[in-house]
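Researcher: I'm preparing a figure for a lab meeting and need a structural model of a single chain. I don't have an experimental structure, so a prediction will have to do for now. The sequence is pasted below. Please return the structure as tokens so I can convert it later.
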Amino acid sequence: MEMIATMEQLQIENSALRLRIHQLESALSELQQQEERLRMMLNTATDWTWEVNADGIYTYVSPNITDILGYAVSDVLGKTPFDLMPAEEAERILPIFTSIATNHQPIQHLENIILHHNGNCLVMETSGTPYYDQQGVFAGYRGVDRDITERRYAELERDHLFLLTPDMIGLAGFDGYFKRLNPSWSRVLGWTEEELYEEPFLFFVHPDDLQQTIDTAQNLADGQIIIAFTNRYRCKDGSYRWIEWVSAPVVEQQRIYFVARDITERKQQEEDFRTQQLLFQGILEHAPFAIFAMDPNGRFLVCNPEAAANLNLAPEQVLGKTPDDLFPCEIAHDLWQRHHHVISTGERMSYEMCFAIQPDQPLYFWQSWFAIKDRDGTNYAVAGTITNITERKQHERQILMQQFALDHAQDMVEFLDDTGCLVYANESVCQNVGYTHDELQGMPLSVIDPYFPPEQWVNMWQYLQQHRTTTLETVHRRKDGSTFPVEVSATYLQMADQDLVLGLVRDITQRKQTEAEHMALQQQIITAQQQSLRELSTPLIPIAEGVLVMPLIGAIDSNRAQMVMETVLNGVETHQAKLVILDITGVQVVDTQVANAFIQAARAVKLLGAQMMLTGIQPQIAQTLVTLGVDLGDMLTRSTLQAGIASAFHTSYNNSNGTRTAN
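Model: Understood. Here is the structure written out token by token.
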């Protein structure tokens, strides 16, 4: 019976044990499912999670760090967050993190900069909580990092827009005071931001605009949006500026948001426009020549008294009429053609027209037609002037020759025809090139300017026909074959019976010499600047008798390595140094080429009876040197510049034989 009872007891315990095993298996399965869910969440989350021990070393990072920062998990484990930061950022964050970690406080939304694997800087928001081991001892932090780079840039752009926009942006309350204003307010009105906040905004309004502004403020308080409201605001110097407002209220917040713009210049322009209208009307009425304008349909829009008088009509009798209503068929047809050409092409058209009222008394008129464009650039009218040039035509040739001959001008004056031959040259040309007037008359330009053979002159003539004028530099050749530089201002002239090109030629020999001297001086300055940059890139500092220090920062290429060697050797010789400390704390990358340069420098220093010490070798650089199999030989090394200097002061160097003795 006792055995049966024991068996029954065993069966009960066995059933309980099976039930317990089943419960444990279910719990394990649930735990595995939760772990899988957690793993999937960590892998797909936009934030990356991490764990650091009490020394701040990463003991866990989520796999999605590769998507966020470009690092493999193995690249980060064993490092600290400061290893992923730029040096200046690590220096900024270290005291903040130390203060938090010392007191075992949570890390809440700490913004910091992390270097992406590709070298770009990302703005991260770090949050974490401390965790403890089973004995309650602080073990480190667990937390998440969120990439807020885009958000931070968006905030900066928003702030920049608010601060830098030329418009006056702000916020006011229903209580009549400004709440926030951008810097444009102070720039436009001259008041400081504090002064603008201290007074009600009605304090700055022009007395004549006060009631209108009060009414508008009441409309805003009632919820209306106000667009293009204008009033005058008083500046600190007592003057007033016209302000145009676009304002929108938020009644629930008792706030008014607004964008204002200084339109004082526009108001002045409007006043100036009215003045110009009066001026234009005065010109039309009193101009001694005819002025007209026609719409696209050829109807006269403008006709001044002088133009109407040529038709024996009053201006009001011309307005609204067409050429067909006012001129004979032949003249009207010619006017229609010119009108159509100008309105369709926008080209300016100037031409002469002759009216033979009597066979022996022809009258000449100079007409200029041009298109008037609207704001969209569309030709909407044709305008022009008509001037009686009969008297000018009679004396034109004589006047032009007298005006441009300038025989005694210091500059050379040359007239050339369409074949490129000299028609006229003043005395200055003769003196400069050594030919007489008779020799120059009819001479091809290519004789005194080798850059303009006949075929090249054809191109120049066509260019001047189209553009009328140009300025260029060339040379003139003297009769003895020597040349000198000249500057030529060429102008195309249409005379009564011949088209010519006028060339105003100036000897620029002295100017060229001055420019050459200036270029030489500029090159000397550049050379001096390059020397200064060379000295800054390889500074050599004596810190004690016989001891020199050269701190290096940044990348080192072959050119800079050569500069390092030259500077070190010159320094050893100049200062009779026995020890040169080369500090590479600020050098991020040392490859085989750079390492060999250091070794060669050490050997060269040794030949001068001195020794080189290499300090500031970072762990990653040391690992690189070992991986590359670089043998630093008998070069001294120290982990930091401080250790190197301490070693230098701990060892005295005998200047006579180069031996060293410990103090």
